[in-house]
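Letters spell out the chain; the tokens describe the backbone. To illustrate:

===
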Amino acid sequence: MNKIQQIILTEIHQAKTITIFRHINPDHDALGSQHGLKHYLTQRYPNKQVYACGFHRIVKGINYPPSDDLDDEVIKNSLAIVLDSANTGRIDDQRYHLAQKIIKIDHHPNLDDYGDVQWVDASYASTAEMITEILQFMHKKPLDHKVATYLLAGILSDTIMFSIANTSARTLAKASYLLESGVNINELHQSLYSVNLNDFKFINFVQRKAKLYHKQILVAVINDRELKKHNMHPNLAKEYVYALANIEEVEVWGIFIEYIDAETSTYNGSLRSKKVAINGLAAQYNGGGHPLASAVKDVDEPTIKQLVDKIAVLIKENHHVQT
């Protein structure tokens, strides 16, 4: 256990009220980390008040508990733990700053220096892996089945079933520890990755809609009308970026989903790369993330084209460096 981890455990032990936050448009890592931690702390400390904060919770595969409806006073008197949120603008429920003390736990590059206590380490494949490590220090025996399921969902999702580059021996060791709780990994995999016929048709549509740019960049732009035609929620649609993966000639791929709010139309994009780091470029477009898996936010169609052209430059520069 390192010094920062010890400080986090001490803060948790001393706090009477704990509020747990995560990012907007949450994925399984955000929700699994949040609810896994909340469920564990509620069991471990029955006299503490532990709450999960946030508004958006559309995600496929697991029916996570609803967020807690809190007034400002509860947050003001709490220890806030913010998970999987690289920058403050992406925290779902901006009242986190009201808390007495803020702890940031995240596995993205540390581009936004916030929080009284920070444990930020991009060598971890997921925030769920980090939370598992913390809980393993607190609880040597197998965890509660529900806690383990939530955390393992976060690890499996963010590593794409242990297939991304920063999956490590440590990642597999944490997953092994969670499996000791009796989680059925086959059933969990089916929950996360199986699709119904409507999803299947939408995946085919995404693949047909995708266009190849600069011979190495594959992009699908899906508008609101197309989403409604396929009965697809925008937050779920972005997860189907994987439908464009594993094409030999393609170095970078992405899906851009239209969001309409009060007559305003913008696109949010999910980008993936085989080798070229794209998170720095994504940060220029209201986003960020990991070197090979990033997101952009609030862009229009001309900006998407501009972004694609800049990705092409990155690919060319990377090729020159390698040669």
